[in-house]
Amino acid sequence: MPVRKTRLAILIGVALLIAASARASELSDDLKARRARVMERLGPDAIAILWSAPAARYSLDIDYEYRQDSNLYYLTGLTQEETILVLMPGNESRREILFIRDRNPVREHWTGHRLTHEEATERTGIDTVFATSQFESFVAAMLDRRGVDPVDEKQAARLFDALAAGRGRVALTLDAGRGLNGPLSAPLELARKIRERFVGFQVTDATPILTTQRMVKTAYERRLLIKSLEISSEAQMAGMRAARPGAYEYEVTAAIEAVHRSRGASSWSYPSIVGSGPNATILHYHGGERQMQAGELLLVDAACNYQYASGDITRAYPVSGTFSPLQRDIYQIVLQAQDEGMKVAKAGSSLEEIHKKTVEVIKAGLLKLGLITDTGGDQYRMWYTHGASHYIGIDVHDVGDRRAPLAPGMAFVIEPGIYIRPSALDSLPRTPENNALIDKIQPAVKKYADIGVRVEDSFVLEESGLRRLSASVPRTIEEIEAFLRKRQAPVTAQR
Length: 495
Ligand SMILES: [Mn+2]
Fold this sequence. Notes:
Blueprint: H1 2-42, E1 46-51, E2 57-59, E3 62-63, H2 70-76, E4 84-87, E5 96-100, H3 105-111, H4 117-124, E6 128-131, H5 135-143, H6 153-164, E7 169-172, H7 186-197, E8 203-205, H8 207-215, H9 219-242, H10 249-262, E9 267-268, E10 273-276, E11 297-301, E12 304-306, E13 309-310, E14 314-318, H11 325-344, H12 351-369, E15 411-414, E16 417-419, H13 432-448, E17 452-454, E18 457-462, E19 465-468, H14 477-485
Parallel strand pairs: 1-7, 5-6, 7-8
Antiparallel strand pairs: 1-4, 2-3, 4-5, 9-12, 10-11, 11-14, 12-13, 15-18, 16-17, 18-19
Helix pairs in contact: 9-10, 11-12
The protein binds manganese (II) ion (MN).
């Protein structure tokens, strides 16, 4: 009945509104807690400043999809350009100040809505919001002990005295490793000005504090990761259904990324890697134009970016549905390496320990297949060319120390792999030992040539133990073959 339907619609509408605002406040509560912890680490005499990422040009007047700076996102949840966050832990009031770009009705007609100050407050939980155009005069006033409304003179003077006495710190996110050349980032530019004009003021890097904190995910972040991996898992399975002899790599890519978008993820969290046959041995293969052939393996490494939560999943599976005996040989080793890696992944262990375990298993397997002659040294590196683990989170290769003891709340992948590229032998220095090695392993290398296998799952370490967030994606040989047998009849495109 229409009336009841209307009432129901209103009820549903109200329920959705409540759910949406509950989500918004859950996020802003979590952001507040994240900032509070960072401020505790910074100490009362610091002023921390974080900038949004610059836009990146794609073509003439078209930009790439905007990607927020991860640390700024972690503390504000904002995806808008020209955003600056200032934290002053020692202030009595207004410890957090946000700068956002001005509203501009003309620009907004072209590029869409910009946050109002009220909206920014609601999302971030930060009460003091200024326009980005006021930032420079704000910093100048703070460093000059003048202060600006609403940060009163007394607080600016206290900060100035701390800085002048060498107790205070201006904490910026300085990206290390950029080298001597190239334009200075906004933080480095400010660091330079401070050094030139405020002699004796100490500038420090706030990055380590943020890195340490980002390593342990909050309950809110864990929920996002779970959802993100749910979408990525479904996408992987859509890719498995799209793969078959005669299909092109890009068809699998399209099937995967269609699921990402249709389930509400904004995009991939890294360009999808879909490599068939010999392309499976290229770690970051982004060609995608090859037509896959019966009998080959297809390696798919793909995951979505869901509200800045990124997992990472890789599967390698036979295009025709059944592993060949040689493919099985390699696959079993990689799978066993992952299984053993999972057993090591517990509180107190480390990503480094997980990696070492996978190396041990892979060495033994390679020796058995005749692909190395010695498990003592580094021969295995010809075929196992990367680390087994990295953290996941806002960045797919998330920040954090690989040797740090694992603790509940940490999220990471375990991804051993073996890639038999015959050309790996060409880069060996021609020493007598290497020549002997090459003679010995050449037959096995020929036999397994062009087989590439990586098995990668995303995990979060929970209080009760390891949780595999990508557990729904077939992983063992039996699971994969059973899944591929049930594939729907191909919907072949006309070409
Ligand atoms: Mn990975």
